[in-house]
Amino acid sequence: MSRLLRQVHAPYVIRSLNFAQLQELAGEIRQEIINTVAKNGGHLSPSLGVVELTLALHYVFNSPVDKIIWDVGHQSYTHKLLTGRYNEFDTLRQIGGISGFPRPTESAHDVFGTGHSSTSISAALGMAVARDLKGDNYSVIAVIGDGAMTGGMAYEALNHAGHMQKDLIVVLNDNEMSIAQNVGAMSGYLNRLRTDPMYSKGKEEIEQILRKLPAGPKLLRLIDKLKDSLKYLVVPGMIFEELGFFYLGPIDGHDIKAVTNVLQRARTIKGPVLVHILTKKGKGYKPAENNPDKFHGVGPFDVASGEIKKSISIPSYTEVFGRTMVKLAGRERNVLAITAAMPGGTGLTKFARLFPERFFDVGIAEQHGVTLAAGLAAGGYHPVVAIYSTFLQRAFDQILHDICLQNLPVTFAIDRAGIVGEDGPTHHGLFDFSYLGTIPNMIIMAPGNENELQHMIATAVNHHGPAAVRYPRGAGIGCKMDKELKLLPIGKAQVLREGADLTLLAVGSMVSRAENAAGILSGMGIEATVINARFIKPLDEEIILKYAAITGKVFTIEEHVLKNGFGSAVLELLSAKGKKDVLVHRFGIPDCFIEHGSHALLMEKYGLNVEHIVDVVAGKCVPRKVPNKLKVVLD
Ligand SMILES: Cc1ncc(C[n+]2csc(CCOP(=O)(O)OP(=O)(O)O)c2C)c(N)n1
Ligand SMILES: CC(=O)[C@@H](O)[C@H](O)COP(=O)(O)O
Ligand SMILES: [Mg+2]
């Protein structure tokens, strides 16, 4: 096993292999990736699809002198294995282990950090310009998927690169898939390049055929004269050529020799080149080939059967959101749903099936999705924009300028809020209170459990202005679900328990932990009031001021950065009301990027576990009883 792979301590080693050996190495790499992801979870089908492409890239180019930039970076496992990380590969995505994405701090071969989509061409152009300004000499290669090519940034970069005419290679890895089936007119165009024999013949091949015809040379001259109208018929990759790129392809991305040849050619061409590579997502592992979506990003699974291990049967927040949307759409005709390439991840698959004309997958285009919602709202509809917290960061100005400034009725369903776990710093949703909280007209809610989530979505959809509901990744707390949807009073918190010694003011995922902490503190003789804030904006000033006055000690608890978060808003309120004598302690995420690792371990590391909350609170409050033996309920 891994006879060849274990010898590859650096990428140059593979240049001593022949093509048969490279093929054998590809098999070993696949096995290594499948076995590791089966244990740790990770991005399986994207990585399996680019094994040969990655081998060819490292065969032709001299990393890290030549710069290879991976768009999104979720397909970079082969790159990691070829660049000296084979021995640590079993730590993939584990706390303290190697990241699932390229990280410059991890290896000199990871020349640019990624995780969010469609950034690679801009970064590559920047590096190419920097190289030329310094008078250096190396190749810069961006590897971008067809899904990532639906993102606006990719076009902004193509536009600029075509104008700059710097030496730059863009490898388009076209597997006809985003996470789900790819969408959009560009995807249709790429599909025609793949399948239409007219397109798929190489430019030179078509020229040769024409030359052989009796009137061939004349025809070619004529074509040259009428270039602008006729070249559309004969030149594949026309859109890219028009943008100033030299187009090469399409090439079978699993034929190492063919990919190596085309990359060698691309390397010699002056100016920007686009190499169109065709691959199969999940290649080499049947369950992933048959279900590339399910195995895109996957938890631990059984290699032999392809069965994904599901540990908890409690519905996830995502599922509850999806069900609520179906309920709401059934009764309110103006409710629409928008996703940016994540119909499954956001729980909208059933909605899309039942209400296809009211569902919009805009591609990886969060900014467009938000302003599309603004337009739909201006046209009399109530769009629900379902985007992960981390990806919504992209659309800050669209939220502010296109929605909130016009006070348009749009609901933001913000999934994956808080620490998401193994995807790490590019994906944690820890900034949404901050970036949304500063915008006038925006209402922000966070449910304490999955039952409350459904009511909050209904409340937001009933509200005639912008409203956001942010909720975490994964399972709810397993609470009883109300059959009927309720409307919550805007800006009203919920008092869950009363105690005279202190106030635990918790929001979202931290509410159940605050309740657990209060139970333990009570056993120690410390009686806590527990408040489920429900609203981050507007805050329930009345309740907060009341219990701050009664208890004199307020502990805010949030799974969010402390800077400009929920606790900061509470501090601002107390300061504005002159409550200088109230002790305030804020639990939350410090001012740093949080690494990857399991949710439970990261919560513990950053002091958001019940045990730590109890310790801190007990240290600031004098127990009235001798403490019982602590029964600590961890998350
Ligand atoms: C800004 C942003 N939005 C959404 C995502 C989630 N996402 C990660 S990979 C992916 C699909 C990428 O498709 P493609 O580029 O074709 O790569 P493939 O997985 O097919 O190899 C999406 C939507 C993201 N990473 N970044
Ligand atoms: C690479 C990427 O951005 C997505 O695949 C992301 O990892 C999905 O996250 P979830 O697994 O939480 O849906
Ligand atoms: Mg793709």
UniProtKB/TrEMBL annotation:
This is 1-deoxy-D-xylulose-5-phosphate synthase. GO terms for molecular function: 1-deoxy-D-xylulose-5-phosphate synthase activity; magnesium ion binding; thiamine pyrophosphate binding. Homodimer. GO terms for biological process: isopentenyl diphosphate biosynthetic process, methylerythritol 4-phosphate pathway; terpenoid biosynthetic process; thiamine biosynthetic process. The gene is dxs. One of its GO terms (cellular component) is cytosol. Residues 315-479 form the Transketolase-like pyrimidine-binding domain. HAMAP family: DXP_synth (MF_00315). It comes from the Bacteria. It catalyses: D-glyceraldehyde 3-phosphate + pyruvate + H(+) = 1-deoxy-D-xylulose 5-phosphate + CO2. NCBIfam families: dxs, PRK05444.2-2. Pathway: Metabolic intermediate biosynthesis; 1-deoxy-D-xylulose 5-phosphate biosynthesis; 1-deoxy-D-xylulose 5-phosphate from D-glyceraldehyde 3-phosphate and pyruvate: step 1/1. Its cofactor is Mg(2+); thiamine diphosphate. Catalyzes the acyloin condensation reaction between C atoms 2 and 3 of pyruvate and glyceraldehyde 3-phosphate to yield 1-deoxy-D-xylulose-5-phosphate (DXP). Its EC number is 2.2.1.7. Mg(2+) binds at D146, N175. The keyword Membrane does not apply. It comes from Pelotomaculum isophthalicicum JI. Belongs to the transketolase family. DXPS subfamily. Thiamine diphosphate binds at H74, G115, H116, S117, G147, A148, N175, Y285, E366. Binds 1 Mg(2+) ion per subunit. Binds 1 thiamine pyrophosphate per subunit. Keywords: Isoprene biosynthesis, Magnesium, Metal-binding, Thiamine biosynthesis, Thiamine pyrophosphate, Transferase.
